[in-house]
Each structure stands twice: as C-alpha cells, then as structure tokens.
C-alpha cells in the first residue's frame, strides 16, 4: 500500500497558506483569475509533495483551504477526509476569527492530528512571535491540537526556513502515518466512495473529477455510480499526485477520468461510489456536538445548513431527547434533509446556521452519521436513545446488534448492514455470526434476514393476534392462510420470513398447520350455515338474466341486507357457501356472479376471439356489453384464472393452454 497522507492547510485569510504551499511544493494553487486579482483563495487548491520519512518516500497531498469567511463552505469540503491539518497563523497578526473557526471545523470533522505553522515571522520581532505562540497554545488547549508542535516559516527567507520546515514535516508525518495506519487498512476494505470536489473537462482526455476518497479500492475499467441519481460511468484512467496509475487504494487524493461523462453529469458535491455501496436518504440519525461559544442553545427543532462531504443542504434538526441542546453539549438528533443525499454510516458533517437564523453563516455544531436511513422516532424514546448510544460507542459486534434493533421488525440483511455501517463486509459477517451465537440476533429466510429478539417477539405476538382474530371473525374457517397472515403482520414482510416465523411457532406448539392454513391447537371450526333467506336474497339480487352487470360493492350488500335482514358477516358466509358449492364465483370483494352465467360469458369471449392473435379492452367490452365498472374486474378475473394475459400495450391474448383446452372441447 502506498505511503501517503492528505494534509489540510487551514487558517485566516491572508495569513500565507497559499504561499506556504507554493514554497513547499512549487505548485501555485490559486488557479482562477479572480483569485490572482484579489489575492485570496476562493476555491480549494491541491498540490503534491514527496517527503523522506525514515528513509522512505511519503506522498503528501496538500489541500489549500480558502480562509475568507464567505468561503467557509469550500473550506469544509476540503477538510472532509484529511489525515492531518496545518493550522496557519501569521506571526504579525496572531489568532484571528477564521483561524478559530477552521480549527473548530477540523476537530468536528474528526481530524485528530496536526501542527501549527507561524508564518510571516520576518514581520514580527522575537517577543511578538512568542506572544502569538502563547495565544495559539491557548487556542488549541483541550482540542485535538493540544500540545501540537509550533513550526515557523517566512516566505521572504525561504532558504533559511524551508529545509528545516520540510525536515520537521517529515518527522511529523512518520507519527501521523503510524496513528492512521489501522484505520487506513480498514477503510481500504470497504466499498469505494469519493465526494467530488473538482469536475472539469481536459482537452484530449475528457471529463476529470477529483476528490479525497474516503474508502475502498478501484482499478481502471471499473464502473462507478454517481449519487444522487442513477448514472454509471467507467473509470477510463486514474491519476495519483499527477502520475498515471492503474489502481488506487483509499483513503487519499485521486483524479478519475470518466468515460462518456460530461462535467454537468458529475458535478462538485456529487459522490462516486461502488454499486450498492451508498443509500440516498433524506433522514439521518446522528450524534452532534455544539460549539461552546454559542450564545443560546439549539432549539428542540432547529433549521440549519448541513455540510456533508463536498455538498450542503438545508435541514430540520430534531433533538431526540426532547430537550434543547445547550452550548458545548453532545446529543442524538434526527436530521430531515430538504433533498436526498448519498450518505454513508460514520460520515462526519458540519452544521451551520441557516438563512432563516439570525446567526446565518456561523458554524454551530458538528456531528457523525450513526444511521443513514432510520425510521421516524418518538421524542424521548429511551430504547432508541440506548441503541444510538451503542451505535456511537460500541465495538463492531455491538453496533451490528444495535443497527438491527433500530430496524425493528423489518430486520436487515448483510448487504443492508454494509450500507448502514462503516465496517468492512468481513467484519459485519463476523459480528453477525457472533451475535447469532450469543442470542442477540435471530435469522430468518434465505438469503437470511436478521432481527433482534425483541422484534421477533413483536412479530410472533402479531401473528398470534391475527390468528385469534381470524378464529373470532370467521369461526367456520379452519384457520388463516399465510398470505393473509403476512398482510396482517405487515405487507412489507418477505413471505419466506412469514413461513419461518410460522414454522417456529408450530415447533413451539403455539400454532398448528391445517392444510394451507394455520390455527391455534385447541381451535375447532364451527359448522355455521347462513339462513336460507340470505341465499334467496343473493339469488334475487343477482337476477336471472344473462347480464353480468349485477349490483356490486355496497349496492350488493345493501340490497341483500334489505331483503333478508342479514348483516355483513352473514352475507359473507352465504357467499363463501355459494362459492364452496360451485354455484357462485367471487370476481372480487363485493362482486359475485352465478357460475353458470360467468361460464357462458367466458364461452362467448372464446368464440369471439379464438381466431384473433389478441383483442383490445374495447372489443371485449362490445362482446360482454359491460361498463368499465364491471368490465375491468371481469377482465382481471380472466387474467387471474390464467385464461388470458395482458401485454404492455394493454391488449389481451388467450394463453396457449387455455385456448387449446377450449378448442378441444368444441
């Protein structure tokens, strides 16, 4: 694996960040005419440097981040994914507001290492430089840079300061590499993900995108998905620090040449990812920390601007505890984004005040994604808060169990767990196996879906309640069929899962199977019979003509009830008895026809269209003489009985076997 680091260069405007990078690398990162005219950085700048670290080369990718307060959102994009930060402070000015904000942003984004560089030391005497160094030490106290070395540099005397600075950076890089190595190895085993921070067309090459890849590995020829959206592009070429390569292992800076893409199709702010690696979501569970200097707490529900990766979106933030969030405190929240974004579990983000807030533009908090696609939660739900805490602080095994618990009775499969958690697939498989052995997960179906014991208990209770209702409401039936059981438990359920759930309950003796139905072991169906008057009323309402246009729905129920004094349950019982005896056919709920009359109509349809390859709904209407209210259910009944099949244009044809059987009889 290549030894490389991505280092962000942060600090107040005009403190010499761009000059420092240029002196170190020889690269002018201010590319735009406006940047050169105004003398300030507007866009992110990138420059490579190779340093000797313990006798081996290390590739450094510097990210020069704009220092002006108007361009903080670009600074945030650059800080996402860096390994370390150089906080630049001019010796002649000292600590300034954007330097403070940049430090806070880097810390909120999880940057745990770095150094301070005092620039323009030629502009300050020794005493002033010492005072500024003390101010900087006060600034970084109790932050990730507490105790970080303070380096010095002057662009006016590069021969004096540059060799020493490079030597110091090389020594620091050795420690930074060591601290990041375990995390880098884990990241490399996860699906590829790259937030795009530059997108442009290079003559002779095509569309190029660059970014700091957060995870994964790629090779030329691979296909990547663009999020949001559904576009896919092949990686035609790769560049690492200006050199062509055939493969790349994250994390780090990389440039991709995408075959057939336009710059508009892969804009800054989009995310390139391996197929199936990311979810596009407008709801996120997260843990956030507010800055200590806020003058008032975040409200229970707060509008804010969320910076995620290299993009940003307005959002509503809800405190899941049900309490406002005080300055300097940490809490679990749910973010409702104004538009869907591609989000990865574990991804860090920055919260700034929105356009409707008097503090518009201020950085107010930062956080980390815990669940990229959660359900809505009730405020103050202790169970949800407990599982989010386990997601935030637990090991891989605990986090897998917590994520499954938050899925409630829908459960998750391993592919979904990989989308939700920032863990390699192998680690997830190991955690699932361990949780199963310890009874913290239950497995259902093939491919397997995992549920928490509490969710399984909930499903079992609902299944038993559904069977009990069936016995009460339809005491003449032997039980409840599994398709109806699935519908009553939850229509989203995989039928395999229902089958596994029923099998477990049967094994425990809670339910028994009766033919295709399931029932309680002690249930005995009652032999109920509808009154003769109800059957006679149904016959009268359906009439004796050949017409299929009989009363249906509420009209049918009302007329039968009026004639016989029966209720809906008794009418339904009489219909079931008629269907069981073969005298009636139920086209759909509330639409009943005498069997002989329906068979005669089907016969006329075969006679009319047996010589045609297909027929339209209009032609069927002419043969049957029905309005759409009756025609459509009858046509769908023919499809359901596998007599006809409908094509994409809405026309129908007879199924070959059905037509051959009719021809054989005639």
Task: Please tell me about this protein's structure.
This protein is an alpha+beta fold and about 675 residues long. The chain has 6 domains: about 5-185, P-loop containing nucleotide triphosphate hydrolases (Rossmann fold); about 195-275, Translation factors (Elongation Factor Tu (Ef-tu), domain 3); about 280-385, Translation factors (Elongation Factor Tu (Ef-tu), domain 3), CATH 2.40.30.10; about 395-440, no CATH class; about 455-520, Winged helix-like DNA-binding domain superfamily/Winged helix DNA-binding domain (Arc Repressor Mutant, subunit A); about 530-665, Winged helix-like DNA-binding domain superfamily/Winged helix DNA-binding domain (Arc Repressor Mutant, subunit A). The protein contains 20 helices and 31 strands. The strands form 8 sheets. Strands 7, 8, 9, 11, 12, 13, 15 and 16 form an 8-stranded antiparallel beta sheet that branches. Strands 2-3-1-4-5-6 form a 6-stranded mixed beta sheet, with helices on both faces. It has a 6-stranded antiparallel barrel with strand order 17-20-19-18-21-22. Strand 12 (about 230-240) and strand 13 form a beta hairpin. Helix 3 (about 70-80) runs parallel beside helix 4 and helix 11 packs across helix 12. The longest helix has about 30 residues, at about 160-190. It is elongated. It starts with a strand and ends with a helix.
